[in-house]
Every structure is written in structure tokens, then in C-alpha cells.
Amino acid sequence: MKYVYPAIFTAEENNAYSVYFPDLEGCYTCGDNLEDALYMAEDVLAFTLYDYEKGAQKVPEASELQAIETNDNEFVNYITCDTFEYRKRHNNRAVKKTLTIPEWLNEEAIAKGINFSQVLQDGLKKQLGIF
Fold first, then answer.
1. Is residue 81 a contact partner of residue 89, using CB atoms and an 8 Å limit?
2. What is the per-residue pLDDT across 87-112, written as a single tens digit (0 to 9) for each?
3. Which residues are bridge partners to 81 per DSSP?
């Protein structure tokens, strides 16, 4: 779920930059300055690739940096992203789940003030190797 793609940065007026990813259709952004453009590029890349994953679409291969042609006011830079981290930050909506446990276990947990949701989350994270 970690990706690296080349992005083309185009210098605009007032130190601003436009950014687009030639390998990904519709994946573009901009920034007020270079630092902002780099931040926005990572964000739009993660969003776009997360959308590919969520829709079970084939993720395109990334081009080699040297294969990309630029104009005089452009440069190419690799941008990295982690769609798993992006999903954790932006897709935190609670989902209701129905589960079944023995009545005696339910009574013991309630008596001890156990938070069922937290126990399930902790158990799933441990089972999935997510910390």
C-alpha cells in the first residue's frame, strides 16, 4: 500500500506550483509555494490511489523519472504515499457490527465494565498485525 509516482511541477506566478501525475488520469493539484505543492501532491496521490484500491481498479505502473519530458518552467519529482495511512486518517467513520458471544461471557464483561467496541478493535488490530 506504499507507492512512488513521478509528478510534474509547473512553476506559476507568485511562487505557486501546479502539479500533475502523468500516469494517473485526473490526478492533479497545486500549491501556494513549493512546500505546499509537495504536501498537496502527496495528499492527492494517496486519495487517487486509495480510490483505485477501493474500486478494485488496476493501479497503473509508475513511469521512470527519466522517461518524462518537461518544459522550461517544469521539473519532475517522485512523490511517495501510503494509502493504508491515508485510509486510517480519512476513513475513520464508525461501522456498526453485530456479533454473537455466549451469554455468560456477556454478563461477565458487563459486570467488569468492559468496552466491547474497544476490545473488538484491539483484537482485530492484533489479528491483522496493525499497531
1. no
2. 888 777 777 888 888 889 888 888 88
3. 3
What is the mean pLDDT for each group of 10 consecutive residues in the chain (131 residues)?
95 94 95 96 95 90 91 95 86 78 87 87 85 68
Write down the pTM of the prediction.
0.72
* Ramachandran region, residue 20 (left: φ > 0; alpha: ψ -120 to 50; beta: rest): beta
Phi and psi, residue 48, nearest 5°: -65, -45
Place of cell 493539484: 29
CA 88 – CA 91 distance, rounded (Å): 6
Amino acid, res. 52:
Y
Reference 13, options 33, 37, 39; nearest CA is 33
Q: Where are the beta strands (DSSP E) in 1-131?
A: 2-11, 17-20, 28-31, 74-82
How far apart (Å, rounded) are the C-alpha atoms in residues 31 and 127?
A: 40
Assigned C-alpha cell, 110: 458487563
| Dihedral angle over CA of 61, 73, 16, 36, nearest 10 | 40
